[in-house]
Amino acid sequence: IPLRKGALPKRVRGIVEAESPRANRAAAIVAGLVGLVAAPLAIAQGIALEAEASKTWFTHAVVVHPDATISSKFGYRQFNDEPKMHKGVDVAAPKGTKVCAPAAGEVVGVSHKSEDTGYGNYVTVYLDDGRKMRFASLDETLVEEGQRVSGGDVVGTVGKSAKDATGPHVHVEVWKKVASDDGHNYVALDAMEIGVPLYEN
Predict the structure, then answer these.
(1) CA separation (Å) from 154 to 70, 132, 135, 157, 176?
(2) In this structure, what DSSP letter does residue 183 have?
(3) Which of 48, 63, 122, 193 has fewest C-beta within 10 Å?
């Protein structure tokens, strides 16, 4: 049937106006579903990227030796029948094995057989990313306070100088600065968890 002049545009407008709210609602629902799916993925991706960035910051293993192994992990352990927090990771290797900084930083402390801490001979390095690392129970310390080091530079040698050491090893600690009134508080991190390359065989 022939349409009257102007009837077709009116019909088209009517169809579009009738369908628009329905289409808008459908689009909103789809967008909401996409957001629900994408948000957790984005969060997970962000966490993964942060972890990967932390790992790639380190450029060299702390100990390189065919016999190197982890002898004690981070966390609570029994000591004299009582749980005691072990704030580092122990890497066992033959006495005299080189101990290297795994990343660039500045030596901020060198100590020799400090009886008040039980660490024995140790070196503390303030890394360029804001974290601190301590290498304890060393046989020798081979750097000086204020010295700049890069990943792979030797800071000492594996030893048995810590108070309760049962064999030659290097005790590796990592500390991260946290908010405080004076800005100088640190919390211990698990070197294995954040990807520090502790040894290479």
Answers:
(1) 20, 16, 11, 8, 22
(2) S
(3) 48
